[in-house]
Specification:
The chain is α/β, with parallel strands linked by helices and about 130 residues long. The chain has a single domain, classed as Rhodanese-like domain (Oxidized Rhodanese, domain 1), CATH 3.40.250. About 45% of the residues lie in helices and about 15% in strands. Strands 2-1-3-4 form a 4-stranded parallel β-sheet. Helix 6 links the parallel strand 3 and strand 4. About 5% of the residues have low confidence.
Amino acid sequence: MTKKITVLIFIALMLTQLNCASRGFSKQIENIIEEQKLSSSELKELIDKKDTGYILIDVRSESEYNSGYIPTAINVPYTRIHEQSEEIPKDKLIIVYCKFGERAETARKKLIELGYENVINFGGTNSWEYELVK
């Protein structure tokens, strides 16, 4: 019986790995999804490597976004997440941020309600240790 449980656990782990691999997630993104957190340096590394397994969304207002945003971010204000969700792919890691993280958490929860599985709240521009794009 113990051997059967071990085999079942092994199969479950392999299926999880295959699921991530079939979605095209890099090992780094798999770790981020598993840990449900992301540091400023990890995000910068994704950006610098031009990893395509994620979408970075600035959920602040358009004017806040235009005042300075994290490189590669697109702007989808949190109040419009539902309206614009069709434009956001479900097969990628979604990373949301705002200024301090509160609106990003609202957006994260909304995306999960809409069926997104891999959504991380990075926090805010106040957590970003590098230069913003203006």
